[in-house]
Fold this protein.
Amino acid sequence: MRWAVVTVPFILLLGFTSARLVPSGSDSSWYRALVKPEQTPPDWAFPAAWTAIYILLGLALAMIIHARGSRLRGPAITVFAVQMVANLIWSPLFFGMHQVLWSLVTIGVMFVLALATTLLFGRIRTGAAWLMVPYLAWLVYAGILTYRIAELNPGAETLVPSSSTTQII
């Protein structure tokens, strides 16, 4: 598990950086203005869940990197990297650009890629695949929340100017 000393902090740093690129959660005036579904957890739950998920992703990746004899190792790491890129795009897309529909599409892409990663990981190390399961479950939950936000907030992108626009007149 010596790879975990590198992969876990790296994945955590990527996730933290993505979340801090734009104001997110209760730091976002746009998000505060949204009508949220009743199943929305409290604000503290999101960073706690993502921290746990990123730790599990880092551990799963470490297990796969260590599986030197597997010919699926390279493809599994590649698919993992692509799904991480999609993951890191989500926060700026949702919180920064206020693109609820495109955020929902991105979650769908993330889920498909994470499922493919999980299946590949499972063919290499069963334990690595099991570490991906909470992420898949969270993506389903996040997809439902995002869908409900889209339903409850038609035209949500216009509630507050996006953080990518200048407010100089």
